Amino acid sequence: MIYKLFIEDGDYQDIDTKEPRNMMEAEIAYTPDGINIGWDEFNSKDEAMSHYNIQVKPEVLNEEE
Where do the structural domains in the chain lie, given as residue ranges? Predict the structure, then answer.
């Protein structure tokens, strides 16, 4: 899968600063510069989260339970 991190309000937060983040996940992204340009490929969502140094916000985890 491919992933892209946005510095905006979303379901994630930076582990160190707790600032909000939004991570998108897709199989393919058509961008003005070409297919998947500006996106990162990882084997799993956990691998992407580790790379981006983010975690799911606690309130999102509570909603999922």
Answer: 2-64
Q: What is the pLDDT of residues 33-59, one digit of tens each?
A: 999 999 999 999 999 999 999 999 998
- Say which residues have a Cβ less than 8 Å from residue 32's Cβ, sequence separation at least 6: none
Question: How far apart are alpha carbons 65 and 49 in whole angstroms?
Answer: 20
One-letter amino acid for residue 16 of the chain: D
Parallel/antiparallel/unpaired status of strands 20-26 and 30-31: unpaired
> Residue written as tokens 């939004």?
22
Whats the size of the chain, residue-wise? 65
| Strand 40-41 with 34-35, pairing | unpaired
| Bridge partners, residue 13, by sequence | 20, 55
pTM recorded for the entire structure: 0.87
Report the pLDDT value the prediction gives residue 55, as an integer from 0 to 100.
97
